[in-house]
Each structure stands twice: as structure tokens, then as C-alpha cells.
Known about the structure:
The chain is mainly beta. It contains no helices and 13 strands. The chain has a four-stranded antiparallel sheet, with no helix packed on it. The radius of gyration is 17 Å and the shape is elongated.
Amino acid sequence: xxxxxxxxxxxxxxxxxxxxxxxxxxxxxxxxxxxxxxxxxxxxxxxxxxxxxxxxxxxxxxxxxxxxxxxxxxxxxxxxxxxxxxxxxxxxxxxxxxxxxxxxxxxxxxxxxxxxxxxxxxxxxxxxxxxxxxxxxxxxxxxxxxxxxxxxxxxxxxxxxxxxx
Length: 165
């Protein structure tokens, strides 16, 4: 995808949720900040979401999914549909469980800048202890083994533009 046009033939811009195929799966794309820059954006950058807040995003740079909001770990930061996941300053660390296609989850602990922890044990402000492996996935919470079939914290999805042009 390079450009997106509405049913009137006008170029679409902003953060958009696009249906993938005929199913219920969707992906996030950013088509620039205004009509003059209404082509798909790739790579890392700050994006204004549909509610006016600005957040850090990462969009795949190459391949058949170029421009799609990235989900997973990239350069030690956790992204969901392109949006960087971060802990709020009150908690210091937050758990986010990223869903896999098989119904399981990969759970990560991130700090206030969105950086994942690796090969260590960290505590949040409520004294919850998270043990993390070399891939950045949480292996235990307060000494209890993490169940891959369970979500421990839902990722924060982008706020999409919902208006037409």
C-alpha cells in the first residue's frame, strides 16, 4: 500500500485501521499528517492519533507488510499495531500480553519509556516482582510461572481517525 483513497476518490491521510482480507483481522497504517503528505509512512516516528495525542510508532519498512504498524519487539521496545507500549509514571513497570495467532500470549514488562527488560528481575511500585528471560518475555510474576494461555495486561491500541474527507 502506498496511497489510500476514499469512495469519492480523495486521498486519505492520518492514522487508519484497515481490514486485512475478508476476515476480522485489521492493521494500522499512517498516511501522513495532511492531504499534501498522504502516502504511507514507514519506520519510526511520532504520530498524532485520532484523539489528538502524540505517541511513538514504528511501521514496517520493507517487504509485503511495508507501512503496517509493527507488533512485537523492535530495538528493545515493545510495539502493538505500531504504537509503542509504555508504563505510566505511577507504576514504573507494566505488563503487556501480545496475542499470538494460536491463542497464546507473549507477555513483556516495559518501563515508562517503552523499553523491555531482559535477563533480570524487576519490581513495580506495588512490589510485584517480574522475572524476565533473555528474549524479554516474563517467565514468572511474584514467583508464579506465567501461563502462555493467559493475558496479564492488554496492549494499548492506537486511536484511529474515524472521520471522512
